[in-house]
């Protein structure tokens, strides 16, 4: 059965929240399904992200979450593909590639100039997938500044 992709709505929170929680656990965060659900609900409620859901055999098996941003230099909208996750039992069925292709189509439909994502250098499977899907590794240098963690008060 082919992979189908559709945009999530607030009615899909109970489908995507467990996948989002598993995604966060993959990145060494503690499991917290209520927190995952509340975070996604707020993003959707305020139109702060777009979530695409992947379904295989009538099961929701993956998602990607995109955040809007703008380029002043290009005077254009861009989207950051911030999250991509496929349930371990659905891997090797083309789900991740279908999500990447759907994200690109979504961004085109929104009139965006491009998509961006970041992954760790040691994530070889993801890097191979992105290259195979036509993404380019940029030579630009990203910097980051860690601020107080969410929920932490003044120190």
Automatic annotation (TrEMBL):
Sample GO molecular function, one term: acyltransferase activity
Record-annotated N-acetyltransferase domain positions: 3-150
Species: Lysobacter yangpyeongensis
EC assignment: 2.3.-.-
InterPro entries assigned: Acyl_CoA_acyltransferase, Bact_Acetyltransf, GNAT_dom
Domain of life: Bacteria
Sorted UniProt keywords: Acyltransferase, Transferase
EC category: transferase
Protein name: GNAT family N-acetyltransferase
Acyltransferase is among the record's keywords: yes
CDD domains hit by this protein: NAT_SF (cd04301)
Coiled-coil region(s): none
Transmembrane segments: none
Gene3D superfamilies noted in UniProt: 3.40.630.30
Any Pfam family: Acetyltransf_1
